[in-house]
Specification:
alpha+beta, PH-domain like, eight-stranded mixed beta sheet, 2 helices, 8 strands, sterol binding, Oxysterol-bd, PH_domain, lipid transport
Length: about 110
C-alpha cells in the first residue's frame, strides 16, 4: 500500500542565474520531514540524492501573484525556491498537495508575499 505521506514528482528548483530553473525529481517524506531532490528519477532509484530540505521549523513562502512559485526557508536560514511548470490545473493540484503536506506537518510559519 502506498504511503500518502510520501509524494514524488518533478518540480523546478532555482539554481543560479546561469542555469535558471532546472527540473529535479522530488520526494516529500512527511514522516521524516525531508524534501529531497535528485537530478532525475533514475538517480533517485540509485540513491544519488542531490540535496534535501529539512522541514521541521521551516518557513513556507507562498507567492500569491505567481501561483507556480513557492519557497522554503530552512532553520539554517537557507531559502530554496521551487516552481511547478504545468498547466494551471496540474499546477494547483501539485502545489496544493506539496504545500498541504509541508504546512500541516512541519512548517513553523507561513510567509505570504
Amino acid at each position: 500500500m502506498e504511503d500518502p505521506r510520501m509524494i514524488e514528482g518533478t518540480l523546478s528548483k532555482w539554481t543560479n542565474v546561469m542555469k535558471g530553473w532546472p527540473y529535479r525529481w522530488f520526494v516529500l517524506d512527511a514522516n521524516a520531514g525531508l524534501f529531497s531532490y535528485y537530478t532525475s528519477k533514475e538517480k533517485m532509484s540509485k540513491g544519488v540524492r542531490r540535496g534535501c530540505v529539512r522541514l521541521r521549523g521551516a518557513v513556507l513562502g507562498i507567492d500569491h501573484e505567481d501561483e507556480a512559485t513557492f519557497t522554503i526557508t530552512a532553520l539554517d536560514g537557507k531559502t530554496f525556491h521551487f516552481q511547478v511548470r504545468s498547466s494551471l490545473k496540474q499546477l494547483r493540484s501539485v502545489n496544493d498537495v506539496y504545500l498541504h503536506q509541508i504546512q500541516n506537518n512541519y512548517v513553523y510559519e507561513i510567509d505570504q508575499y
